[in-house]
Amino acid sequence: MNKRTLLCSTGAMIGRSNGFDIHLITKNFPRFMADGLIEGGELMMLPVYYDRLAAVSGEWLAEGIPFPVIHCEKNVGTLLSDAATADAEGDTDTAKALRAQAEEDFRKNCEMGAMAHSTAMVLHLWGGFQSDAHIAYNVDALPALCEIIRPYGIRLLIENVPSNTHDPHSNWRRLIPQLSECDLIFDTRFGQLHRQIAETWADADIAPHIRHIHISDILGAPRDFSTLRPILHPGEGMVDFDAFRRILDEHGYSKTITLESPVIREGGADALKLADTLAKLKGTLGID
């Protein structure tokens, strides 16, 4: 059996409704590890961490939680897409300012990744209302991001995030010339939204570059972006995880997989539900 490593996103337990309580990770992730449910975490970078990078990563690392993957703060992709739109409209000053802010925030994410000893970083290369409307600009911005992250020894992974003009698969194909510098991360919820799970993994130019996977579920019609929330747990939506397991087996996938489905509640988090989902997911995806 191929060795697959199960992680859990810190974003599954931390959110606005519980005051971004980082102690929920400190309390629960070591227990999940001791129970054999996960081998570590994926550090979801949030804007509230920017002024306390060392404090957040230091508390979690002190508990022995490894973070092989960090998820770059999502607004970096939104800033790039907004810059792309400004550039397309001829507003070069705004485009330059937004691009500079995206790169500065990205650098802070790299610093957090280095503090957490991460070796891979998930990036939304496009995002927000503008999404992939001017995808060529976003793709052209990638080499600069690769140059920023290179000294940190972290591999950049581009996610198949929802796309309101084109689609994640075709956007990924635009990245093929850049894939010596980075790799890809496949999200099941986003793949189902665009009905591109089988299509993407059948692409012989793409599949070998998928180094990481995000797991969550979704209900609803194709490209109905209103269905992205709430984020469902595996088995609560439409993703055929038995078929997805077969895809992973066929490709001999033996890399990292992160559960992203949240259990955030007012003032806390439902750790029992999260543990139950992790246990079931291990069986479904053939994780030792």
Give me a quick take on this structure.
With 288 residues, this protein is an alpha/beta fold.
- Please tell me what the overall shape is: globular
Residue runs with pLDDT of under 50 for 5 or more positions: none
Task: Classify the helix fraction into a percent range.
Answer: 40-55%
- Total count of strands: 10
Strand order of the largest sheet: 1-2-3-4-5-6-7-8
Strand content: 5-15%
Give the oligomeric state.
single chain
Number of helical segments?
A: 10
- Cα end-to-end separation: 9 Å
Largest sheet, strands/sense/barrel: 8 strands, parallel, barrel
Give the SSE layout.
Layout (H helix, E strand, L loop, with lengths): L4 E5 L13 H12 L6 E4 L8 H10 L6 E3 L3 H14 L3 H24 L4 E4 L11 H15 L5 E5 L8 H7 L7 E6 H6 L3 H5 L8 E6 L25 H11 L4 E4 L4 E2 L2 E2 L1 H14 L4
Parallel strand pairs: 1-2, 1-8, 2-3, 3-4, 4-5, 5-6, 6-7, 7-8
Antiparallel strand pairs: 9-10
Tell me about this structure.
There is one protein chain. The chain is of the alpha/beta class. It is 41% helix and 14% strand. The protein has ten helices and ten strands. The chain has helices at residues 23-34, 53-62, 75-88, 92-115, 135-149, 168-174, 188-193, 197-201, 241-251, 271-284, and strands spanning 5-9, 41-44, 69-71, 120-123, 155-159, 182-187, 210-215, 256-259, 264-265, 268-269. An eight-stranded parallel barrel has the order 1-2-3-4-5-6-7-8. A two-stranded antiparallel sheet has the order 9-10. The longest helix is centred in the middle third of the chain and has 24 residues, at 92-115. The chain is globular and about 55 Å long.
